C-alpha cells in the first residue's frame, strides 16, 4: 500500500503548541499515527517524561509518518532524539540546526537514538517535513534529561547541501534530470528527480532500503488518478514495486528519500 496525501488534504489537521519561550510551533499531520501528544508539554524540554517507546515485535510492520512542522520566530526545538530513523526536509524559511545553517531545500538524516539540534528559526521562521518509515509516537526525547532513556545504537547523522527547486524552472525543462544529493550505508539515498511537463521516470526499487518517502517540492505529479501538487508527501513500503513517476502538465521536482535498512 502506497501512502499519499496532498498539502490541501492535510491542512485541516494543522494545530499549534506553545514553547516555554512563548512562541508557537505548528504541526500538520499528513499520514501515520500522531508523532507526539498534542499538548504543549511535547515541545517543553522541562516537561514530565512522555509515553514509553515499545520496540516492534518480530515481523511487526508499523505505518510510516509524514508531518510538517512550522516554527515561528523565537520557537526553539531543543536538542533531542527519537527512537526511529528519520529524514527532515526544510521547505520554507531559514534557521540553524546546531552550528549549521538551514535553508530550503535541505535534507538531514538522523538515525534512531542519535541526538540532534537545537533547531533555531530565523526571523522568517522555518518549516520542514519529518518523514519516517516506521512510526514513533513518543515525541521528542529532550537532552540531557532523556539521556538515560537513549537506547544503544550507532550514532548516525547526515546533513546534505541545499538544492534549488522553483516553479519557474519547470516549464522550460525538456528532459528528466536526476540529481544525487546524499548517499550512505545500508541503502540510504536521497535524489532530486526533475521532470519536464508530462515527463516520466522509473524509480529505484524501495526494497534497496527500508522503503522510500517522496516529497513534491515544485510542480505536481500524477498518482492514483489524482494530482499531487507542491508539498504532497508519499511513502512507498519496501515490499511494494517501484511505482515510477509522471509529472503533471507543469513538470515536477520530487525528492526521493530512501531509508537505510534497519540497522544499516
Write the layout of secondary structure elements.
Layout: E1 3-5, H1 7-10, E2 15-18, E3 24-31, E4 65-71, E5 80-81, E6 86-97, E7 100-102, E8 106-110, E9 119-132, E10 141-142, E11 157-159, E12 177-183, E13 189-195, E14 200-201, E15 212-223, E16 226-228, E17 233-236, E18 245-258
Antiparallel strand pairs: 1-17, 2-3, 3-4, 4-9, 5-10, 6-7, 6-8, 6-9, 8-11, 12-13, 13-18, 14-18, 15-16, 15-17, 15-18
Can you describe this structure?
2% of the residues lie in helices and 42% in strands. The chain is mainly β. The longest helix has 4 residues. The strands form 3 sheets. Strands 1, 12, 13, 14, 15, 16, 17 and 18 form an 8-stranded antiparallel beta sheet that branches. It has 2 domains: 129 residues, Jelly Rolls (Sandwich); 92 residues, Jelly Rolls, CATH 2.60.120.10. The mean pLDDT is 93. The two termini are 24 Å apart. A hairpin with a 5-residue loop joins strand 2 and strand 3.
Q: In one word, what is the shape?
A: globular
Stated plainly, the CATH topology of the largest domain is called Jelly Rolls
Instruction: Spell out the helices and strands N to C.
Output: EHEEEEEEEEEEEEEEEEE
Q: Termini, distance in Å? A: 24 Å
- From the alpha-carbon coordinates, what is the Rg to the nearest angstrom? 18 Å
Average pLDDT confidence is 93
Major β-sheet annotation: 8 strands, antiparallel
Count the DSSP helices. Answer: 1
Helix content: under 10%
Low-confidence stretches: none
- Report strand %: 35-45%
**How many extended strands?**
18
The CATH superfamily of the largest domain is known as Jelly Rolls
The domain tally reads 2
Based on the structure, what is the oligomeric state of the protein chains? single chain
Amino acid at each position: 500500500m502506497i501512502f499519499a496525501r496532498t498539502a490541501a488534504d492535510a491542512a485541516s489537521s494543522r494545530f499549534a503548541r506553545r514553547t516555554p519561550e512563548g512562541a508557537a510551533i505548528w504541526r500538520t499531520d499528513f499520514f501515520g499515527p500522531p508523532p507526539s501528544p498534542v499538548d504543549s508539554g511535547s515541545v517543553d524540554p522541562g516537561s514530565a517524561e512522555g509515553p514509553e517507546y515499545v520496540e516492534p515485535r518480530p515481523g511487526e510492520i508499523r505505518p510510516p509518518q509524514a508531518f510538517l512542522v512550522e516554527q515561528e520566530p523565537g520557537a526553539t526545538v531543543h536538542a533531542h532524539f527519537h527512537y526511529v530513523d528519520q529524514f527532515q526536509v526544510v521547505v520554507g524559511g531559514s534557521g540553524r540546526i546546531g552550528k549549521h545553517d538551514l535553508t530550503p531545500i535541505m535534507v538531514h538524516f538522523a538515525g534512531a537514538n542519535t541526538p540532534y539540534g537545537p533547531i533555531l528559526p530565523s526571523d522568517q521562521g522555518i518549516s520542514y517535513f519529518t518523514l519516517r518509515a516506521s512510526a514513533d509516537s513518543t515525541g521528542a526525547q529532550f537532552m540531557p534529561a532523556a539521556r538515560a532513556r537513549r537506547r544503544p545504537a550507532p550514532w548516525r547523522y547526515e546533513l546534505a547541501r541545499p538544492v534549488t527547486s522553483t516553479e519557474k524552472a519547470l516549464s522550460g525543462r525538456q528532459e528528466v534530470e536526476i540529481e544525487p544529493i546524499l548517499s550512505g550505508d545500508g541503502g540510504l539515498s536521497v535524489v532530486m528527480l526533475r521532470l519536464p511537463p508530462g515527463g516520466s521516470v522509473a524509480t529505484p526499487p524501495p526494497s534497496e532500503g527500508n522503503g522510500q518517502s517522496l516529497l513534491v517540492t515544485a510542480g505536481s505529479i500524477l498518482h492514483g488518478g489524482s494530482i499531487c501538487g507542491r508539498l504532497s508527501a508519499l511513502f512507498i513500503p519496501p515490499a511494494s514495486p517501484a511505482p515510477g513517476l509522471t509529472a503533471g502538465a507543469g513538470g515536477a521536482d520530487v525528492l526521493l528519500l530512501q531509508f537505510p535498512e534497519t540497522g544499516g
